[in-house]
Design a protein that fits this description.
Blueprint (H helix, E strand, L loop, with lengths): L17 E3 L5 E3 L3 E2 L6 H14 L3 E3 L7 H10 L8 E6 L6 H15 L6 E4 L7 H14 L5 E4 L3 H9 L7 E5 L7 H9 L3 E5 L11 H9 L4 H11 L3 E2 L6 H6 L10 H8 L15
Parallel strand pairs: 3-4, 4-5, 5-6, 6-7, 7-8, 8-9, 9-10
Antiparallel strand pairs: 1-2
Bound molecules: NADP nicotinamide-adenine-dinucleotide phosphate (NAP).
The site of NADP nicotinamide-adenine-dinucleotide phosphate has 26 residues, from helix 9.
Length: 284
């Protein structure tokens, strides 16, 4: 098991722990996902609640159509902007060198921010991703995105990108949960100092009844979702669960009063069945 990216042991982590990206920027290890939270008024309310219960890392995207609501919640919140880590993403139809810069400016405007903490490429669009990355590097160097990264990149996509750029992505946001344990990809990312940010870390809520997870949860007197999130964190990953319920938002942050042991970790790893709830970038 690898704990390379934080200097802390799993027992020392808290809901406010951060991980250092390869450029030194600190990213909270638990974030809040906002996919499917629509319309903007709902996103504003949900993100406002998430901030009030302690989330400091907020993940949105241009294609989620809720950047305005996310931005309003941030502006309304009493949390200092410097304490927040806000990510948004470049959508596929906006890829290409010129279009990327324009899409970024529009996202920033919708969010009502003068910088984002991270700008992510949403998908490894063939023929476009390298020129889009070139524009993202310029945005990063201008200081308007404190970090840049990618989503849904396989080892092959990453190797290709790295060989064409002096900037290694700081993050690869991919689907990652016990039923999709992407071990080789995780190892590749860790070797190259790329943080894996686990999306759909609860497998979209579809596998809550799994008997192995239920047994491990009972052993620690925790909920299955907390076991799923804790497993990802102990692997060195960032997690971004989504919930619109205040109680579940709190549950999804309550991960730091227990620790999975070696046997728990191994049993969970064995649940892998390459089960994807979202899209599959293999072969793109
Ligand atoms: N880059 C990409 O391509 C990509 C793709 C997919 C997702 N993402 C990001 O990752 C985030 C998370 O992924 P996701 O939204 O797909 O799925 P997820 O976080 O794995 O699961 C969300 C589902 O689980 C339920 N849930 C949440 N907490 C729960 C709890 N404590 N107990 C029981 N059920 C619970 C939610 O329902 P309620 O809301 O009713 O609680 C919702 O139906 C997204 O919101 C998005 O920001 C990125």
């Amino acid at each position: 098991m690898i704990y390379i990216m934080t200097n802390k042991k799993p027992s020392q982590l808290t809901a406010h722990s951060t991980i250092s990206l390869n450029n030194g920027i600190k990213m909270p290890i638990v974030g809040y996902g906002t996919w499917k939270i629509l319309p903007n008024s709902s996103a504003r309310k949900a993100v406002g609640s998430a901030l009030s219960v302690g989330y400091r890392n907020i993940d949105t995207a241009r294609i989620y159509l809720n950047e305005k609501g996310v931005g309003k919640a941030i502006q309304k919140s009493k949390v200092d902007r410097k304490e927040l880590f806000v990510s948004t993403k470049l959508w596929n139809s906006d890829q290409g060198y010129d279009k990327t810069s324009k899409a970024f400016d529009k996202s920033l405007k919708r969010l009502g921010l003068d910088y984002v903490d991270m700008y992510l490429m949403h998908w490894p669009v063939p023929e476009k991703r390298l020129e889009s990355w070139r524009a993202m590097v310029e945005i990063y160097k201008s200081g308007r995105a404190k970090a840049i990264g990618v989503c849904n990149f396989t080892e092959e996509h990453l190797a290709d990108l790295i060989s064409h750029s002096d900037i290694v992505p700081m993050v690869n946001q991919v689907e990652f949960h016990p039923f999709l344990y992407q071990k080789m990809l995780l190892e590749y990312c860790q070797e190259n100092k790329i943080i894996v940010e686990a999306y759909s870390p609860l497998a979209h809520g579809r596998r809550m009844q799994d008997p192995v997870l239920c047994e491990i949860a009972a052993k620690h007197a925790k909920h299955v979702v907390q076991v799923m999130l804790r497993w990802n964190i102990q692997l060195g990953n960032v997690v971004i669960p989504k919930s619109t319920s205040l109680e579940r938002m709190q549950d999804n942050l309550d991960l730091f009063d227990f620790e999975l042991d070696k046997s728990d970790m191994e049993q969970i790893e064995n649940l892998n069945e390459n089960y994807r709830t979202c899209w599959d970038p293999t072969g793109m």
